[in-house]
Amino acid sequence: MPYENETLTETFIEFNENPTVETREVKDEGVTKDPVDLYEKVRVLCWIMTSPENHETKALAVKETWGKRCNVILFMSSEKGNLIKFCTKN
Q1: Which of 7, 43, 48, 67 allows an S-S link to 63, with CB 3.0 to 4.6 Å?
Q2: Rounded to 5°, angle at Cα 13 from 10 and 17
Q3: Is the pTM of this model over 0.85?
Q4: Same domain, 47 and 76
Q5: What is residue 41's three-state secondary structure?
Q6: Residue 9 within any structural domain of the chain
């Protein structure tokens, strides 16, 4: 992940009869080092579709791993579960 004031290299490829490649350096000043700051600036909604047989395995694994990076995490299922709050269709 680039950090504040780091110089990045961008490559542009134009696809036509005579492809051309252009490379240039770009100074990125808008990327932050602080993940807490990014968490507050960027809102991420995670919508997880699952089924009852995965409630205690896969859905729980999502909640305990990458689901922590979501500002809001919604688990959708056909039935309610015991370990996680699920949104169900009535």
Answers
A1: 67
A2: 165
A3: no
A4: yes
A5: helix
A6: yes
